[in-house]
Amino acid sequence: MDRIQNSAAEDEPPPTLLSKSALRKRKKVPASQGGKKYNADGFDNSNSTYPYKEDPKPPPPPNYEERVNKYSREANEGHKSRHRRATRRDENRNTCSLYIQTDPLIWRHIRESFPEHADPRKITEVNEKTREEILSLIAHHVTAVNYIYRDTKFDGRSEHRNIKFEVQRIKIDDDSSCNCHHSRCPEMNQFCLENIDVSNFLNIHSLGNHEDFCLAYVFTYRDFTGGTLGLAWVASASGASGGICEKYKTYTETIGGMYQSTKRSLNTGIITFVNYNSRVPPKVSQLTLAHEIGHNFGSPHDYPPECRPGGPSGNYIMFASATSGDRPNNSKFSSCSIGNISNVLDAIEDKKKRNCFSASAGAFCGNKIVEAGEECDCGYDDKECTDQCCYPRIISNRDRELNKSAAGCRRRYGTECSPSQGPCCNSECRFISSFQREICKMESDCSTSSKCNGTSAECPVPTPRPDKTRCNNGTQLCIKGECSGSICLEWNLQACSITTQDHPNIDKRKLCELACQNGTDICRSTSEFADKVGLPPGGISLRPGSPCDNFQGYCDVFLKCRAVDADGPLVRLMNLLLNRQTLITVAQWITEFWWAVLLMGIAFIIFMGLFIKCCAVHTPSSNPKKPPARRISETLRRPMNTLRRMRHPHGQAPHAPGTAHGPSGRSRRDPTGRPSASQGPRAGYGEGRGHYHAPKGKKAYSPLATAPPVGYASPHQPHPELYAGAYEMRNKV
């Protein structure tokens, strides 16, 4: 998983670039699985193939939030046919199907944003509004990702263009399953648990079977530690498991020191909409989703430095830290990412990886998103469809008997609208009158509230507040209805970042102060001119989770700038010990002090000889001619006796002719070295050296033939960040 953090520290090459070949050694899969490897990426620190197709492209909307593009998947016939590889000759197979699930925490957050959520008389109404808001959120994010991938040319050995994403299935988990008693709940929803770290959260999601989809994602509202915004498994062109189109199969892992086989889907990822207790801006969460899907398609974080230029144009999508989204490069892939993704797409075209891409058939009835050609869309079947105004995709026998002309995603006879069309249609299948002044979209920092007009089921577009209205706790300005401008614009200045490069010994707290500059003048903190522009003393501080030090760190809860490393602890240790500069330094020291190295080598050999000699007298032996092993406690009390044993390992110390062997009072051994008949076997007697004897009644432990993957050490769930290629996307503001 890839860790994109609130800043982008200069990191070494991501683990995926270092250990693709090592994955085969780390992960052993049953023979039926073809020896594929466990690969991952999170913020989180994968690739897929797209046949060439050059379709006419409509111009993108000026604002992702102003319109919702609808997505679908081809009618659900023949899932098995999607398992076959489509070559570039089949130009229509360029669509990646999505399964998107939302957890109870995001349901709770959105539901509680409505003022009437506590009114018991409006439970059904609020639930419908919540459901519609979540569906709109999903549609906006898939729309944004489509514009990014559709306009990118992933050209490797073949041309992979016009990649599309279509939602095939949506599952919205409300919080009702979190409030029932265990005796009444057939199965506990693990997503109800609040204290789950990002790695285990992805692992829980990966336990489900998602092989019928190209990718499967969970949207949540969890404030993960370290500013994590997303996590996803990474694809590999070498054939390692993980990323798009991955099948549901068995992997061997270590749990509590024992090997255990677990089935997982590694075509998965997660994103969250909260960071340091603040809602993530829409542009940032949209870019987070594009970033994590980039990992699924085979791209690690941008490396080397030429692929993360920074500066006025900003960094690219696969930068290790989340960006603000307001710079030209923020919504583009770097040449490094394009190359990595193209390699995976080529591997799919060459049939080295499974191909699950399909041709787009327009609207997909049953995904709960109303698309072109559909009157409504309440879900796949009666279990999903709670709408009394619309037919689901699979029509029940009862509905078929009542209306032989019933068709999926069509309104029932005599209805005016369906709640699936928007929040301004009530449960009686009628438009909500404008006289009711029903609020369908709450006001925000940059827009007013919106009310139903009585003529449409959709909520009217809210009126934006005037440009340069303060937002985000007074740290930004509204621009065209979005909180995207810097407050520096209010004083005709430009936003900038105080850096350690310009101020090496600066206080870390100063780096988390909002700063402005006039043209090319020096970057100054707002605390320096607060009195001149009417700001409180001390100026304006950045919010926790905001990037600082020119995106090389992020502000923690104490408003101190913390440097960010996108790699995990094992990779950092490896980079520390094996980086080029360290190896050169060690080589120079050995050349200069060769005599010291020689002495240390001789001393080490002598030490090891003494150590082995000492251990020999304390190690039980199955040889009956050897004396019993000594205890460590005996050696500590009588070290001279141990030294004698080391000199005379068979117990035959030198003695004068005719004298008794050994010290007085000690039991004698016969000339064969065996104990006398009057003695029982001594400690260690007859024990095989190093053998383990299971207690009676218990089966002896026998390790499985399949070894666990390296680094897989969690007692409960595997940690994706310990796998090669595991990445994580770390926060932004």
UniProtKB/TrEMBL annotation:
<keyword id="KW-1015">Disulfide bond</keyword>
<dbReference type="GO" id="GO:0004222">
    <property type="term" value="F:metalloendopeptidase activity"/>
</dbReference>
<feature type="region of interest" description="Disordered">
    <location>
        <begin position="647"/>
        <end position="719"/>
    </location>
</feature>
<dbReference type="GO" id="GO:0006509">
    <property type="term" value="P:membrane protein ectodomain proteolysis"/>
</dbReference>
<feature type="active site">
    <location>
        <position position="292"/>
    </location>
</feature>
<feature type="region of interest" description="Disordered">
    <location>
        <begin position="72"/>
        <end position="91"/>
    </location>
</feature>
<keyword id="KW-0165">Cleavage on pair of basic residues</keyword>
<dbReference type="InterPro" id="IPR034025">
    <property type="entry name" value="ADAM10_ADAM17"/>
</dbReference>
<keyword id="KW-0482">Metalloprotease</keyword>
<dbReference type="Pfam" id="PF21299">
    <property type="entry name" value="ADAM10_Cys-rich"/>
</dbReference>
<feature type="binding site">
    <location>
        <position position="295"/>
    </location>
    <ligand>
        <name>Zn(2+)</name>
    </ligand>
</feature>
<dbReference type="GO" id="GO:0005886">
    <property type="term" value="C:plasma membrane"/>
</dbReference>
<keyword id="KW-0732">Signal</keyword>
<feature type="binding site">
    <location>
        <position position="291"/>
    </location>
    <ligand>
        <name>Zn(2+)</name>
    </ligand>
</feature>
<dbReference type="InterPro" id="IPR051489">
    <property type="entry name" value="ADAM_Metalloproteinase"/>
</dbReference>
<keyword id="KW-1133">Transmembrane helix</keyword>
<dbReference type="InterPro" id="IPR001762">
    <property type="entry name" value="Disintegrin_dom"/>
</dbReference>
<keyword id="KW-0378">Hydrolase</keyword>
<keyword id="KW-0479">Metal-binding</keyword>
<keyword id="KW-0812">Transmembrane</keyword>
<protein>
    <recommendedName>
        <fullName>ADAM10 endopeptidase</fullName>
        <ecNumber>3.4.24.81</ecNumber>
    </recommendedName>
</protein>
<dbReference type="Pfam" id="PF13574">
    <property type="entry name" value="Reprolysin_2"/>
</dbReference>
<dbReference type="InterPro" id="IPR024079">
    <property type="entry name" value="MetalloPept_cat_dom_sf"/>
</dbReference>
<feature type="transmembrane region" description="Helical">
    <location>
        <begin position="593"/>
        <end position="616"/>
    </location>
</feature>
<dbReference type="Pfam" id="PF00200">
    <property type="entry name" value="Disintegrin"/>
</dbReference>
<dbReference type="InterPro" id="IPR001590">
    <property type="entry name" value="Peptidase_M12B"/>
</dbReference>
<keyword id="KW-0325">Glycoprotein</keyword>
<keyword id="KW-0645">Protease</keyword>
<dbReference type="GO" id="GO:0046872">
    <property type="term" value="F:metal ion binding"/>
</dbReference>
<feature type="domain" description="Disintegrin">
    <location>
        <begin position="362"/>
        <end position="467"/>
    </location>
</feature>
<feature type="domain" description="Peptidase M12B">
    <location>
        <begin position="94"/>
        <end position="345"/>
    </location>
</feature>
<keyword id="KW-0865">Zymogen</keyword>
<keyword id="KW-0862">Zinc</keyword>
<dbReference type="GO" id="GO:0007219">
    <property type="term" value="P:Notch signaling pathway"/>
</dbReference>
<dbReference type="InterPro" id="IPR049038">
    <property type="entry name" value="ADAM10_Cys-rich"/>
</dbReference>
<feature type="binding site">
    <location>
        <position position="301"/>
    </location>
    <ligand>
        <name>Zn(2+)</name>
    </ligand>
</feature>
<dbReference type="InterPro" id="IPR036436">
    <property type="entry name" value="Disintegrin_dom_sf"/>
</dbReference>
<keyword id="KW-0472">Membrane</keyword>
<feature type="region of interest" description="Disordered">
    <location>
        <begin position="1"/>
        <end position="67"/>
    </location>
</feature>
